[in-house]
Design a protein that fits this description.
By secondary structure, the chain is an alpha+beta fold. It is 41% helix and 17% strand. The relative contact order is 0.11.
């Protein structure tokens, strides 16, 4: 039996060297190690051996099996690598003479409008700030004169996270940080706070032609001595006339926002329907574009600024709606849809 086992190992080594196909390799494995294989048959006959011979032959049989399995594993690896190399060699070569598709993408319309607004405000001395999309309750509400029990919270159905933070429902969430960042320069050096901070906002909205659960705003603030509503109107009129490159009809109407007093809604005549009324403007001829007003004294206090000495204005410009007006997009949902047919018509003017 010892000689038979050694012969099986020797033949296995010779046969494996001649195999060149994975299917043949599997047939060989079954032939030698399968349930009816040659080595398995020898193992079944070991019961006829004496008690003295059986352990020795059992040990040798296990060594032979392990040796053959190792050879099978190495051969399998070799044949798989060889097969992969054949597949690579059979692949067609890349033809550098084939014309390439050089079509280039374009910036999203909201990005175009945002960059244009940033350039306009920079020319008027404003800095551009960035801020996180995930904020604390204090940043989004409490620092803006909206305590936890304030009914104004019902105006915004907000997405809260398990850690107690939330997806910001308004770019105003950055106001407190901006005041604290620049208040020393304001107080010590007399440098006005003039900043804009664009960003993406989130609200649990019932979506329609003019409402989305994800949208873009641009918050703007200016704080100095003797700032009035006249300053607010000047900067907003200048910005809108630059964006649309023509005179735009605007109107201010009273509006309630806890972080400004007095507060206004700045509306522009709907450019999609020319003021005649459509689904985008809810058939009113006007589109709400910019909540604004004079910064509430409590908000200034929260930012470390004395409201007895300084005043300021704030506005929340709807970049998404501004893009709709500028490019004639009738349904706000198109802007987040990823619909290339709807979005590919916009190109960068730069």
């Amino acid at each position: 039996m010892k000689q038979k086992l050694e012969d099986i190992r020797a033949r296995a080594k010779e046969q494996l060297a001649t195999l060149s196909d994975l299917s043949d390799l599997e047939n060989f494995r079954v032939q030698v190690l399968g349930k009816k294989g040659e080595l398995t048959g020898i193992l079944k006959s070991m019961g006829a051996l004496s008690a003295e011979e059986r352990p020795k032959m059992g040990q040798l049989a296990n060594e032979v099996r392990a040796s053959i399995e190792t050879m099978l594993s190495e051969k399998t690896k070799e044949l798989k690598e060889r097969e992969m190399q054949r597949e690579i060699e059979s692949m067609p070569l890349f033809d550098i003479s084939v014309p390439q598709n050089l079509a280039r993408g374009a910036y999203h319309p909201i990005t175009l409008v945002q960059r244009e607004c940033e350039a306009i405000f920079k020319s008027m001395g404003f800095t551009v700030e960035d801020y996180s999309e995930v904020v604390t309750d204090y940043e989004c509400f409490e620092s803006l004169n909206i305590p936890k029990d304030h009914p104004a919270r019902d105006m915004q159905d907000t997405y809260y996270l398990e850690n107690g933070q939330l997806l910001k429902s308004q770019t105003s969430a950055a106001q407190n940080a901006i005041y604290k960042k620049y208040k020393d320069a304001l107080v010590n050096d007399g440098v006005p706070i003039k900043a804009i901070f664009p960003g993406r906002c989130f609200r649990n909205e019932a979506t329609d032609a003019c409402h989305e659960n994800t949208f873009f705003q641009m918050e703007g603030v200016m704080v100095d001595k003797n700032i009035s509503i006249s300053n607010l109107i000047y900067f907003m009129k200048t910005m809108l006339s630059e964006v649309f490159r023509k005179d735009i009809k605007v109107r201010l109407r009273p509006g309630f926002f806890p972080f400004v007093e007095p507060g206004f809604e700045l509306d522009i005549s709907c450019l999609i329907c020319g003021g005649e009324g459509c689904s985008s403007c809810k058939h009113s001829g006007w589109l709400e574009l910019c909540p604004c007003g004079m910064i509430h004294p409590e908000v200034l206090k929260a930012g470390g600024i004395d409201p007895e000495e300084y005043t300021g204005f704030a506005f929340g410009l709807g970049l998404t709606r501004l893009a709709m007006m500028k490019y004639g997009v009738k349904d706000i949902r198109d802007l987040n849809s990823g619909n290339l047919k709807a979005l590919s018509q916009f190109t960068d003017d730069e």
